[in-house]
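Work Package 3 (structural annotation) set out to generate three-dimensional models for the target panel prioritized at the project kickoff. During this period the team completed the workflow that converts sequence records into discrete structure tokens, so that structures can be stored uniformly alongside our sequence database. As a representative example, we reproduce one entry of 145 residues exactly as it appears in the project archive.
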Amino acid sequence: MANDELYTPKWIFDKLGVIFDLDVCAPAGGPLHTPAVEYFDLESDGLTAKWFGRVWMNPPFSKPSVWVDKWLDHGNGIALLPLSGNSRWWSYLWNSECAVIQVPPNTGFINSEGKEKKIMYGISLWGIGESNITALKNSGIGRLR
């Protein structure tokens, strides 16, 4: 799916103001500008690898369910996901201890050529773990739920 190769804009990380121990879904060759100490890309397979510390997760939007399950089990991080109230994984998140904010509409993401691409559906940031929920709250990106 074409939207699986869209990366988080730098301003989101600037607003969050945190360093991640691990980016679990980085592009080949490493994160574009994700403030992460280590990363897993397609080759190192973040879905089957052991996660540690505070994680950043912007998973393939074509199949987020398996990633969300692992993220919830890990219990420490921030995830960027589509707004999708009509899916099982979204319901799990909504009914969990996670916090969520909506990313402003028409946010430009970065494609594999490094160019901005606007997407036509809603995006959300989810936090699990006290320090990650605090980062969302303090980011000013949107209203925390």
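The two ends are 30 Å apart (CA to CA).
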